[in-house]
């Protein structure tokens, strides 16, 4: 169940820094990082979904095609893209890779923030 500020079972850890009403947020590039190309670049195979601080992962919404104001229905929930994601330095700490946040931005894969317009159960995404 997606709520205005979190997903059931996946609450925000840092509400002061991240509780701006624009969560949950997908991180669409996680799949790229987990692919052979991403693994070859990082030289690691231990990355998993959720490790980058994303609440859920979407496929088929490339960062360079998603625009602020785009709206999506994912299951019974409705979302609006509000801004590109600013990757937190904590991702680098958690993964023992201090360059992680800067490299994700340099590779044009920061992800984006969603605002929850309508709470609901999540499922397969469609464009509104």
Give structural notes.
- With 128 residues, the protein is an alpha+beta fold.
- The protein has a single domain, classed as M1 Pyruvate Kinase, Domain 3, CATH 2.40.33.
- 23% of the residues lie in helices and 17% in strands.
- It has helices at 15-18, 30-34, 36-42, 89-94, 100-106; strands at 71-74, 77-84, 112-118, 125-127.
- The chain has a 4-stranded antiparallel β-sheet with strand order 3-2-1-4, with no helix packed on it.
- The longest helix is centred in the N-terminal third of the chain and has 7 residues, at 36-42.
- The model has no long low-confidence stretch (mean pLDDT 75).
Describe the structure concisely.
This protein has helices at residues 15-18, 30-34, 36-42, 89-94, 100-106, and strands at residues 71-74, 77-84, 112-118, 125-127. It has 128 residues and is of the alpha+beta class. The protein has one domain (20-127): M1 Pyruvate Kinase, Domain 3.
Helix-strand topology string: HHHEEHHEE
Structurally, the number of domains stands at 1
Shape designation: globular
Question: What about the largest sheet?
Answer: 4 strands, antiparallel
Q: So, CATH architecture?
A: Beta Barrel
Top CATH class? Mainly Beta
Q: Total number of β-strand segments?
A: 4
